[in-house]
Structures are given as structure tokens and as C-alpha cells.
Amino acid sequence: MNNLARFALRLLGLGLVLALAGFAMAGFSLENLDTRGPSEQRTIRPVGELRESDGQSAYPAERVTALMVTDEDHSIIVRPSADGQWRAVCYERKHGRYEADLHNDGVFRLRYVDDRPWYERVGITYCGESDHDVLVYVPAGANVPMTLSTVNGAVSVEDVAAQALSMSTTNGDISAKGVRCAGEMRAETTNGAVLLTDLAAQSVFGQSVNGPINFTAVDARRGDYRTTNGGIAGSLAGAASEYTVSARTALGDNNLTSGGNGPRQLNVKSVNGSIDVAFAP
Q1: Which helix (H) or strand (E) holds 11?
Q2: CA-wise closest residue to 275 among 249, 257, 238, 245
Q3: Is the pLDDT of residue 231 over 70?
Q4: Which pLDDT score is estimated for 115?
Q5: Is the pTM of this model over 0.85?
Q6: Is the pLDDT of residue 235 over 70?
Q7: Are the beta carbons of 165 and 175 closer than 8 angstroms?
Q8: Is the pLDDT of residue 3 over 90?
């Protein structure tokens, strides 16, 4: 072994010792190594906490016209509200907080802000499980457009109604269950699966680059499902004769035949993956 190799091994060993020492000083807790600091729960309500742009009167929750959530390093979960009120439950740190506003346009905006300098972001970012998710509770019958976007986290929506629903993430799964959407529902991820269950929408768009797309009991006038590395499988409402189909895969089996003249449109495309779609009239 030459001198350069010996020096490299010694340097590596020193680095491991320093890393272990730092981990021990942090109480063997990854969260303590996060430069954003310890987390603290915060509940955000449009009524009473958020105010109109004039800063005077409280803004009634029934006047919420849309929901927009932008996050990073956390999952976004949307569920129905048991008390009929809009509410967001999140976890903030000294250098990681949420900005929330609800102005005269009626849009309830929730945005995560990481205000650390760039050199502190290079270190460890700890993302736990449920203790770092942001949960948004939606009143029954709210039926407003919803836009949910995160990076390095999942997006999950269950048992709510929306005029339109857009869900996107870079690294994480997207799931929607029991959703009723009057317009378009979009689910887009780069590295993760798209899981759709018991949905009704005017149109559904599901896309993943590295991950499968699975759906069960999806009822839509138009369905567009695309993935590069992954299969596409599931069941759609209606008979096969109700669909006009375009289906293509480069590497994998395909049980669909392109064609037909039904009023429903179905586009299914995969590059490396099989297509296995059933119809349930």
C-alpha cells in the first residue's frame, strides 16, 4: 500500500471518529443534528388567527375559496375536518417555519420557509415520520380548488371534495382515496408511486418518472396515466366499450388494445413497465 492510500485511510478513519463523536454529543439523535433546531407544534386556523390584508377583521372560514400548500422535506396530508373548521397542524423550528395568510382573494396559503444560510443547509436534515408531516383539515362541503406541492415528502388526500386537485412532489409517493373532484385531478411525482383509490373526477392525470401507477375504482371522463420506469395497473369504472383507448409500452406486457369510439378517453403510456388495466361496469 503506497503512502497516498495510507493517508486516505487515516483521513477516512479520522472523519468517522469525528462523526461518531458529534453523534454522541447530540445524544445519538438525528433530530438534534438538524441545524434548524428542535420542532414545536403549531395549529393554524383561518378564523381568529389569520386576518384580512387590512389587518383589522377576522376572516370567516366559510369564505375560503382555495387551498395552496407549499412545503419541503415534509409530507402533506389532507383529511376531512371533524369539527367543520379549516385547520392546519404543522411543526416549526427556529429556522424552519410556516407562513400562512388568508387575504381578500379567499385563498388559504400555507408555505414552509427554511431561512437558514446556504452553508447550514449542507448538513443533516432530519425528516421523521408523522411528527414532521403537515396535516390540513378541510370542512365537509368546502369543495374548493386545492394545490399541494412538496419536495422530499409524500402527498396524501382522503375523503374530501374539491373543485380541482393538484398534487406534486419530487421524492415521494402520491395517494388519493375517496376524493370527489368536479374538475381535473393531477398527481405528479418524480421518484415515487401514484396510488389512486375510489375516485370520481372529470379528468385524472397521473405521472411518475421512477415508480408505478396503480388505481382502483377510478371514475373519470378522461384518464391520462404515464410512467417511465414502472408498471400501470388497476381498474376503471365503466365497460370497455365506453372508452376510446390509446395504450403503449416499450418494454413490458400490455393487455389493452388501442382504439374504440367510446365517450371516455383513456391514454396509458409506459416505457419500462407492463400495462394491466381492467374495467368494472
Answers
A1: helix 3-25
A2: 249
A3: yes
A4: 75
A5: no
A6: yes
A7: no
A8: no
- The answer to whether the CB of 255 falls within 8 A of the CB of 212 is no
Cα–Cα distances in angstroms (integers) from residue 111 to residues 71, 114, 151, in the given order:
6, 10, 12
| Range 103-109 contact pairs with CB under 8 angstroms and sequence separation of 24 or more | 103/52, 103/53, 103/59, 104/52, 104/53, 105/65, 106/63, 106/64, 106/65, 106/66, 107/64, 107/65, 107/66, 107/67, 107/68, 108/46, 108/50, 108/64, 108/66, 108/67, 108/68, 109/68, 109/69, 109/70
Cβ-based burial of 38 (10 A; exposed 0-12, middle 13-18, buried ≥19) = exposed
Q: Of 217, 214, 173, nearest to 198 (Cα)?
A: 217
Strand partners, 235: 278
Does the pLDDT at position 207 exceed 90? yes
Grid coordinates given for 207: 405521472
Joined together, the cell numbers standing for residue 262 give: 367510446
With a cut of 90, say whether residue 83 has pLDDT above it: no
* CA atoms of 87 and 50, how far apart (whole Å): 11
Range in 138-142, 193-197, 202-206 with the lowest mean pLDDT? 138-142
- pLDDT at position 126 is 46
Torsion angles phi and psi, residue 157, rounded to 5 = -130, 130
Q: Residue 269 is inside which H or E element, if any? A: strand 264-272
pLDDT in tens, 121-152: 555 444 444 458 999 999 988 899 999 999 99
| Cβ-Cβ contacts under 8 Å for 36 (sequence gap 6 or more) | 93, 94, 95, 96, 114, 116, 125
Which amino acid is located at 164 in the chain?
A: A
Q: Is the dihedral of CA 17, 19, 23, 26 positive or negative?
A: positive
